[in-house]
Design goal:
The complex is a heterodimer. By secondary structure, chain A is α+β, with helices and mostly antiparallel strands. In chain A, about 45% of the residues lie in helices and about 10% in strands. Chain A has a domain of about 90 residues. The radius of gyration of chain A is 23 Å and the shape is globular. About 0% of the residues of chain A have low confidence. By secondary structure, chain B is α/β, with parallel strands linked by helices. Helix content of chain B is about 10%, strand content about 25%. A 5-stranded mixed beta sheet of chain B has the order 1-2-5-4-3. In chain B, strands 6-7 form a two-stranded parallel sheet. In chain B, strand 1 and strand 2 form a beta hairpin. Chain B is globular and about 55 Å long. Classes of the chains: A alpha+beta, B alpha/beta. The interface between A and B is large, with 60 and 55 residues.
Chain lengths: ~425, ~180
Amino acid sequence: MAVIESKAKIYEGSRIPQPIPTVLQVDKEKHKLEDILTVNFGPNHPSTHGVLRLVVDLDGERIAGIAAVIGYLHTGFEKTMEQKTWWKCITYPERIDYLSFQTNELVFVLAIEKLLGLETPRKATWMRMCLSELNRIHSHLVWLGTSALELGAISMFWYTFDERDTILDLSEMVCGTRMHTRYFQAGGLAEDIPRGFYDEARKFCKQMSRAVDEYEGILDANAIWLKRTKGIGLLSADDAIALGQSGPCLRASGVNWDLRKNMPYLAYDEVDFDVPVYHHGDVYDRYKVHMDEMRQSVRIIAQCVDRLEEMEGEPWIADDRKVVLPPRHELHTSMESLIHHFKIVTEGYTVPEGEVYVVVESARGEMGCYVVSDGGPKPWRVKFRAPSFVALQATATCMTDAAIADMIAIVGSLDGVMGEVDR
Amino acid sequence: MAYEGVPGLVETVEAHGEVTLVIDAARVVEACTHLRDEEGFNFLSDISPTDYLGWAAKGVAGYIGTRDGRDLHAPGSQGMRRVPDAKPKRFAVNYHLLRLADDPVRLRVTCLLDDGEEIDSVVPVWPTADWFEREGWDMFGIVFRGHPNLQRILMEDDWEGHPLRKDYPIGGEPVRFSGEE
């Protein structure tokens, strides 16, 4: 299937507001003549997915103007990372997006490895894929639970958090922590995969495929859910590309684009999965893409587990003592290992001079990481291309002609995680 | 090379499997329009400005001990590593482009700027540049000429300074109180 089919042009012309693409403005004349009410929504509002602030101009029930205001969660991650050694920086990207932490960690580690020219063992590659997909499901579950909650379907929240908990249990089993795992290292994984993980992962796959059908059964049979999501928040394929949308938003607008398929990284070209594409570009289609993606992720996890089981006993991290910490037990017997350990932890390893831009398909879309190294042990510049940041640029376009009640559904469907938006 | 026809092309750099086009900053809109229309780069992934103040100089963040440190990849050599080449100008604005089609390609377009130098906005070329350029202004103080709404985006509207500049101190920002005049 082609990336963009000709029939993807479902709406005539562009709906992107002029002259500011991200702000829907009310005519000054109209503002005077008609009864336009300006309402401030957020930043502390339970339906804004964090601390998003929207300044809305209302014409009765309809939205006449909207501007998204962000930055309330800005913590200066990029500045902080410039002060830390490469080795210590790995903990930061995961904290940027607290739902999709594993993929964020992955993109930064891949960037370091690209600059270092470091090869990772295949066991690490497959485990990274497995955990990324688990993380994608985790993120989609939280998205589904909270988005449905905002539209009044409170029970979804409890159901999704059940499966989410199973994923966090798996995460705890592998990494020792439930979130912000720091399990990926430059060169591979921090630890070997624990015994019993494969069985638990298989059990989860079974539970999850049943659960997705259940969620869909609950929501697709719910007239309120259908009325509140269908035909709302329209975004055409051309507008989505012009606004830099990626991930589920883009695929719901009829663009068959997934970095895992179109520009494969890790070993995604060796696994069997489909990319769900829907063509209406409304909130309902975004929901459908999320649901189908969870099914596909389960398929990928099952294949990863099968492959990983064959790799029992293989190394999980590259054998490069200048970058990778020596095994713990060697520290008691080997002087060289102790020195290497000391050097990596205190001074850090140096990364050759250069700049790279690495992307992965995170749960929210194209997660990019631009890294500049001056050859020292600290990054010169780290920039994250946060998919949520870009997704929120589409609010004005999606909200054209929407009613105030739809606003919640639309903001939810764009799936912005404010930690990632503000970084 | 494939990108010879790009207006304002200064040089083409290939490293780590990535292609970088260094473009004359004055012709960035022309070059980007050409890349979008002729080369099919319909998707702007990212705009990442970088501040190279103190690049390849002594005592900057990133170096411990001697100016260039030891080459950890050649143990025992004790050889001094090459210092990175100095950059001709202080700022670099990097545009990461993607051809979102059946034959996907990534490309980086770099424009070099001095402090205080302005660059044309690419919002008319790719609407998604809106927030990226606002972030560039907010974090680096780079003025994107012709941007329809060049305001601070992540920091407060009345913030002083541009935090990602290399001369912006870390941990030294004053604590502000709302009642303060």
